[in-house]
């Protein structure tokens, strides 16, 4: 099982810290990098604009993603230096940086990957996990810096812990897992003097160009744009919100809190999957059907507007690439008082399949197209509740995660909504949530997780679930 949480929950063993950051010559070379015709992805552009609007937050507003895992052999600094540079030069997302022009346009600059040079620095012994966590966050620049990623090794006993910290600008969840496996593979071959044997990777820059080329052809009359607009209008012209009060005010910032718990055993997960299959659905639509039932119970509303992330990787090489290859797809569902899980999960599958047709139509692009009198009220920097299912068993190299004490962590940032992940491992299925760190949200999340757990376990145990709206929505 992979450790998951916020960086302040990462408990690295204290020891001698060596970190790898960009050399001064490399930073200077990046600064001279010419403009590139490929813009950032729509998601990257909005992320950068949001980060820019919140530069005065007083803390790192942008997301920092950290992967960490253990080696049970002594650290070879030279081999790790070659590993880090091989990794960075291999993925062209690390060759890019972005700047805002005077007219507000976000422009990409691309440097020669051969000029990327990360060098080691010995920081001596760090005697606490707090000191290590502080170092990582202080040393890793924000998204408007080219070098918004750092690496480090903490030596302890006969082994060491390796970490890689990336600003979210250059990575997504799948990429973080790929980075962990790839760094392990490169280092293992470097210390043996062997070829890495890594698969060919695709170009994230080319992916962004392809996305922009497709979105440039969209108009308000494009069927997929019309579908997005229709869904938001049906939701009162706004995006969905979490079904319980999170205590988030319109002014100020709420930092991020985290909760992870075991949802059920692998035996129960397989029984839940069986119920889904018997009713014409896969696991992901089953998860969304459960979320719809819970929302109905808490609000009494019959319309559920779900959003779930979908990978936008489309070529074999892109499935080995590091980058932000995701979009949100809509999964609306109707839940009546007489509905049960088995009566709606087939419809959830159909809604999910229809939503997948919108994978390559960024909602950010839709918002660029809608007119002020469209009846849609969505503000810049919008945030929505997200429900995600990941079958971790299918990720490359997952079999070694346990042995390596692997972990994925994020900074506390700012939080306005609830992000929920259902993660299926070999022995259990877990639930993890990031949410606003308010008293109201902690109470709401406890109620919500308890309800989801009851729904899932009831379906696994009895084969169905009937909501009890009166008890919760009154």
UniProtKB/TrEMBL annotation:
InterPro entries: CAT-like_dom_sf (IPR023213), Condensation_dom (IPR001242). It comes from Williamsia limnetica. GO terms for molecular function: catalytic activity. It comes from the Bacteria. Residues 67-369 form the Condensation domain. GO terms for biological process: lipid biosynthetic process. This is Condensation domain-containing protein.
